């Protein structure tokens, strides 16, 4: 049971491209988590033959790692015009670094996160993000558990995500 990390990330990247962003970087989640793996996989697939490893920074889902990743990305390529962070805390850390560097969000650099935590709508600017339907995931987990208890075989279910467009991108 999981949200569709891959398609959620692809939605972000399509949205950024449709908005005219051309130098899209990413700050990954941990590569030992399914979300971290699938979101990075979506980024790599989106970039295809144009993949530039210098536009990938690695994080651990903490705000601090988002800030560190953003500093690394700006050092490597000051022309970045968008960043997709694998979660909202890292995106919020990235926005702080952009502000400190004199970059405006979203005018200079669009920022998008993933999860839609409560701080996302309260940030300045409000963070564009991918909403995971946690309530539906919980409901499906209970249903699947009851099915297993009732003797049915376990099923794998992937729940669609939703792009929530706010001010940061």
Structure commentary:
- With 169 residues, the protein is α/β, with parallel strands linked by helices.
- The chain has 6 helices and 8 strands; from the N terminus they run βαβαβαβαβαβαββ.
- β2 (24-28), α2 (34-47) and β3 (56-58) form a beta-alpha-beta unit.
Highlighted features:
single chain; 169 residues; alpha/beta; two-stranded parallel ribbon; 6 helices
Give the helix/strand layout.
Blueprint lengths: L1 E2 L1 H14 L5 E5 L5 H14 L8 E3 L4 H14 L5 E4 L2 H13 L9 E3 L5 H5 L6 E3 L2 H16 L8 E2 L2 E3 L5
Parallel strand pairs: 1-7, 2-3, 2-4, 4-5
Antiparallel strand pairs: 6-8
Helix and strand succession? Answer: EHEHEHEHEHEHEE
State the end-to-end CA separation: 29 Å
Largest sheet: 4 strands, parallel
Which overall shape is indicated by the principal axes computed on the Cα atoms? globular
Mean pLDDT: 90
Task: Give start-end ranges of low-pLDDT stretches.
Answer: none
Across the major sheet, the strand order is 3-2-4-5
Helix and strand content put the structural class at alpha/beta
Strand content: 5-15%
How many β-strand stretches? 8
Radius of gyration: 17 Å
* Percent range of helical residues: 40-55%
Number of helices: 6
Brief summary:
This protein has helices at 5-18, 34-47, 63-76, 88-100, 118-122, 134-149, and strands spanning 2-3, 24-28, 56-58, 82-85, 110-112, 129-131, 158-159, 162-164. Helix content is 45%, strand content 15%. The chain has 6 helices and 8 strands, in the order βαβαβαβαβαβαββ.
